[in-house]
Design brief:
Length: 113
């Protein structure tokens, strides 16, 4: 009976295959992993300006005025942002800010509410 394919946790390729033991391998990026191990090591870790761990759905407060290209004014310090979403990249927080709309923020400019 053929082994089940599992998606690669590194590149998200759906073609991860069993190497015969407990490990799986990805033919596209070459990553090897054990699906029985916790996926916590692969999860995104984002910390605020004070070093507090942020999670999806948290609320944060902007700690300094942030200029916004194309907007009439900056996002003021003290603005509360609810229901954030963590993403990979330079601006690692996706959110919606009332009066500005959807945008990305850097975690170094916010603190957990």
């Amino acid at each position: 009976m053929p082994e089940e394919m599992k998606p690669c946790p590194h590149c998200k390729s759906p073609y991860g295959y069993s190497t015969g033991g407990e490990l799986y391998a990805c033919p596209e990026c070459g990553h090897e992993w054990n699906p029985a191990e916790s996926s916590e090591e692969n999860s995104l870790v984002v910390k605020d300006a004070n070093g507090n761990l942020l999670e999806d759905g948290d609320s944060v407060i902007v700690i300094k005025d942030l200029p916004v290209k194309g907007a009439s004014g900056p996002i003021k310090a003290g603005t509360k942002v609810k229901n954030i979403r963590l993403v990979e990249g330079d601006h690692n927080i996706d959110c919606k800010i009332k009066g500005f709309g959807a945008m990305g923020l850097k975690s170094e400019f916010v603190k957990k509410a």
